[in-house]
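To: structure subgroup
Subject: Chain for Friday's discussion

All,

I'm putting the inputs and outputs inline so they're searchable in the archive.
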Amino acid sequence: MQRQPPEPASAPGPGSAPEPVSPAKLTRESYHSSDTGSERDYFVYLPVGYETERARSWPLLVVLHGDGERGDAKSDLDYLLKNGPLYEAWIQKRDLPFVIVAPQLPLYGRDQSVSYLQARTRAEIPERLADGVPPRPPEFPTPSPFSGAVANADLPYGPEGPPDGWSKLEADVVQIVDAVTRSHRVDPQRRYLTGISYGAFGAWYLASRHPDLFAALAPVVGWGHPDLMPPLARTDLPIWVFAGGRDTTIEAQYFYPGLATLESLGHSRLRFTVEADMGHDVWARVYAGRDLYDWLLGFSQGAGRAP
């Protein structure tokens, strides 16, 4: 992503060298969870130039992870590096011009019943290399044939999404967004929300509950319930939704009832992309590209949203 050279904090004297551009930085912040009653951590990624471009306000990208990355928000927090914008910015060292915030969803006992949570190990967590970047993991296999998706209004989940999801951590996420906006040089008119799978359901829910908190929404492989759509339509919040045509976990047929409701309410800022050749890991393609980041940066609440 192209970036303008940073403006120095003060004019350099004759013959002095300009201040080096600060590198990207990944930090942990702590907060007291109103849901669990305990101290938990979340990641804050600071982009290239954040510490040297001192007069600049930065966009904020809030990322809600999927079911397989939940944990205690202490020793388990590094699981959030496995995919999504944090993986792209920190592990793949891409220059994404956002302050990125990533909280962690508690296990809520799912590690006792969900096989992929029981089987996961820290060996799955990618490492940031001193030189270069690691190879990207292969795409999920997609043995199922291509097929058209027909709308299905018999939705398996209610407005809160699947069980033990982000709706339970609503107050925590809002608290974190407010805290980072105050403590970092964040532009409050350019706060964006995205989520993966479980996190996509959470992103729909949180955006509906707090439609004035974000300038744009991007749920990836998670559909929105029709009951969530009125606040999103009322604010005409820009939304870009992604599904996998071969996804047997979150099937494309369930996306249409909510999106049709959104349009029927007069919403005009909607994109829906079905990656017809992909399974559930659509996020790998979406976040590895640049289209979504460029689209998000086109919206600002204060200056009016781009078409």
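Points worth raising on Friday:
The domain at 25-127+144-297 is CATH 3.40.50.1820 (Rossmann fold).
The chain has one domain: 25-127+144-297.

D.
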